[in-house]
């Protein structure tokens, strides 16, 4: 019993010591040494080579089977007894390095904020020269077609990774007249051109002179409208029928915003009220008579008064009273006709003032629930007016860099017009919409701005391919030849001019890049890249020559496409 009692009173062995439940280290030094020396077989079982390659290791020593087969040195991880449970403080050098890097980042952030503030201070100056190489900010997701979205993503990735000199500046010339996306569309025009240093030509800027002339022309036009309101106007039945026919032939076949029955009904309703009622129907009648008069007249436009200006004056007077009727579809159609008359008369600034009001009304309607309550016929009328407004807006943006209003953001919300009749005017209208979208979207991703070339040959090649596919799918009634052969159809000739101009726009960056490369500036290119560059530049030059021949046919007579042919 004594022996047994003596055995029970002896201290327990280390192997039978229970570990504490709270996870703390054993209290006795001997227990701590046992925990430190506990074999970590799961970590040390594989050699360093097998651990790195994540292959199965047989853990044979001095060399495992895998290393023996490869004939390489086999090493095992050295035991780290006692290191795992010790918390080591970071060295002072690491802390000093972190502090130094934080100070550098703070100083850079302050410098960037100061630079942005300085740029914002001068962004309102239209003649300021900005040559910042900063990358553009990330754009908010917007409604874009399948043509534009991948191209913009490609340009953004190229700017961010490959070539910093291609990046678009944060601030732009004419920034107060452009949104972030449309600022990339700057290129040579009749108004302005800032030549980069590698082009031996002088720059020009006639923007102020242009606006001075347009403002004076608007004042003169306003005085004429006031004078004509006090004079009688020819509203005889024979005259109105003749002007209706001219309107249908020379306008509705270009821009069918409504059918012929709507035209006839509006004139009959206005006639029944003796043209004295200030209603949308009477306003529409005056505008379509004005359009019929100006498109019918083939005489000299150098005379003091435009054809149909007396009808136009009365339509403008009624439209001014209806200016608050944002949701009225006939009022929207009147604004489209008003802008079309001014566009036909080559009054670009007045056209822009009129069509932007129509664009704002379209955007207000799209932003409301009004479209949900429209009948199918009213919905179709709105769709036609929307796309007619969009084509005029984008034509002025493309040729004159006018103020963008953002109607492009609603393209995906409004379906294309639907036509039941088989008429060439409807096919032309759809072709015009699609081609105009091609042109405006291409100007966003390829072009030239502030001496910096937005050069993306892969994007250019893909866009050219898609434009050719567009031509291949054209209906026969609106298809045009690809050379300078006369077509004796003003609409086909106008489509051909836009088609050729699109290839000129796509090839223009390659022309600038070749000239820059010839002066020895910029990074060198591979031989294949130079060949592709020359091929695209040659296409641009050929397109310029072809457009001059096509425009000559367009300018033989004034049509709805004359304005674009003059400014493109």
Task: Note the topology.
Blueprint: H1 2-9, H2 29-36, H3 41-44, H4 48-53, H5 65-70, H6 92-122, H7 148-161, E1 192-193, E2 204-205, H8 207-228, H9 237-252, H10 260-272, H11 280-296, H12 309-321, H13 329-344, H14 348-367, H15 376-400, H16 424-445, E3 447-449, E4 452-454, H17 457-472, H18 490-518, H19 527-554, H20 562-567
Antiparallel strand pairs: 1-2, 3-4
Biased composition (Basic and acidic residues): 1-10
Pfam family, one: Zn_clus
InterPro entries: EcdB-like_regulator, Zn2-C6_fun-type_DNA-bd_sf, Zn2Cys6_DnaBD
Tell me the number of structural domains. Answer: 3
Number of helices: 20
In total, how many beta strands?
Answer: 4
Percent in strands: under 5%
Which residues sit in consecutive blocks of at least 5 with pLDDT less than 50?
Answer: 1-27, 121-186
Major β-sheet annotation: 2 strands, antiparallel
The largest sheet has its strands arranged as 1-2
N-to-C series of helices and strands: HHHHHHHEEHHHHHHHHHEEHHHH
Estimated radius of gyration: 37 Å
Label the overall shape.
elongated
* Overall pLDDT confidence: 75
What does this protein look like?
By secondary structure, this protein is an all-alpha fold. The protein folds into 3 domains: 29-83, Zn(2)-C6 fungal-type DNA-binding domain (CD2-Gal4, Irregular), CATH 4.10.240; 131-205 and 425-568, no CATH class; 207-418, no CATH class. Helices cover 56% and strands 2% of the residues. The protein contains 20 helices and 4 strands. The strands form 2 sheets. The chain has a two-stranded antiparallel sheet. A two-stranded antiparallel ribbon has the order 3-4. β3 and β4 form a beta hairpin. α7 (148-161) runs parallel beside α16, α16 (424-445) packs antiparallel against α17 (457-472) and α17 (457-472) packs antiparallel against α18. The longest helix has 31 residues, at 92-122. The chain is elongated and about 115 Å long. Mean pLDDT is 75; it is low at 1-27 and 121-186.
């Amino acid at each position: 019993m004594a022996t047994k009692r003596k055995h029970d009173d002896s201290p327990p062995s280390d192997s039978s010591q229970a570990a504490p439940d709270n996870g703390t280290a054993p209290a006795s030094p001997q227990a701590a040494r046992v925990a430190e020396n506990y074999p970590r077989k799961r970590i040390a079982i594989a050699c360093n080579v097998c651990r790195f390659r994540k292959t199965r290791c047989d853990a044979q020593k001095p060399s495992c089977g895998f290393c023996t087969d490869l004939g390489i040195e086999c090493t095992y991880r050295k035991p780290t007894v006692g290191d795992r449970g010790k918390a080591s403080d970071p060295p002072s050098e690491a802390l000093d390095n972190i502090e130094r890097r934080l100070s550098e980042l703070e100083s850079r952030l302050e410098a960037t904020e100061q630079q942005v503030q300085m740029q914002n201070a001068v962004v309102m100056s239209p003649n300021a020269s900005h040559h910042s190489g900063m990358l553009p900010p990330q754009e908010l997701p917007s409604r874009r077609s399948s043509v534009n979205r991948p191209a913009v993503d490609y340009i953004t990735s190229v700017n961010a990774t490959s070539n910093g000199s291609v990046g678009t500046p944060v601030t732009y010339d004419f920034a107060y007249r452009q949104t972030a996306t449309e600022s990339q569309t700057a290129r040579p025009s009749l108004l302005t051109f800032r030549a980069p240093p590698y082009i031996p030509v002088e720059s020009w800027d006639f923007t102020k002179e242009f606006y001075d002339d347009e403002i004076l022309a608007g004042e003169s036009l306003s005085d004429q409208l006031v004078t004509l309101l006090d004079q009688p106007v020819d509203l005889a039945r024979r005259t109105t029928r003749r002007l209706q026919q001219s309107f249908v032939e020379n306008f509705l076949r270009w821009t069918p915003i409504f059918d012929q029955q709507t035209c006839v009904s509006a004139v009959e309703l206005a006639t029944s009220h003796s043209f004295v009622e200030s209603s949308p129907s009477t306003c529409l009648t005056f505008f379509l008579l004005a359009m019929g008069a100006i498109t019918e007249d083939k005489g000299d436009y150098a005379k003091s008064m435009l054809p149909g200006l007396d009808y136009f004056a009365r339509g403008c007077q009624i439209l001014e009273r209806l200016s608050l009727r944002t949701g009225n579809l006939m009022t929207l159609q009147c604004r489209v006709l008003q802008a079309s008359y001014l566009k036909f008369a080559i009054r670009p600034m007045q056209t822009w003032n009129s069509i932007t009001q129509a664009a704002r009304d379209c955007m207000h309607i799209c932003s409301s629930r009004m479209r949900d309550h429209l009948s199918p016929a009213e919905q179709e009328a709105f769709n036609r007016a929307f796309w007619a407004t969009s084509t005029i807006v984008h034509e002025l943006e493309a040729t004159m860099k006018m103020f963008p209003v953002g109607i492009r953001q609603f393209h995906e919300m409004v379906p294309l017009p639907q036509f039941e009749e088989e008429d060439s005017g409807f096919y032309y209208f759809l072709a015009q919409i699609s081609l105009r979208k091609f042109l405006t979207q291409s100007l966003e991703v390829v072009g030239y701005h502030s001496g910096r070339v937005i050069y993306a040959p892969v994007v250019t090649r893909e866009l050219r391919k898609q434009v050719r596919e567009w031509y291949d799918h054209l209906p026969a009634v609106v298809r045009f030849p690809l050379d300078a052969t006369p077509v004796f159809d003003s609409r086909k000739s106008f489509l051909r001019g836009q088609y050729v101009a699109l290839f000129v726009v796509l090839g223009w960056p390659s022309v600038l890049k070749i000239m820059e490369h010839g002066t020895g500036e910029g990074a060198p290119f591979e031989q294949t890249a130079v060949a592709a560059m020359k091929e695209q530049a040659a296409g641009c030059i050929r397109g310029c020559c072809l457009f001059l021949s096509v425009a000559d046919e367009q300018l033989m007579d004034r049509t709805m496409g004359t304005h674009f042919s003059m400014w493109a």
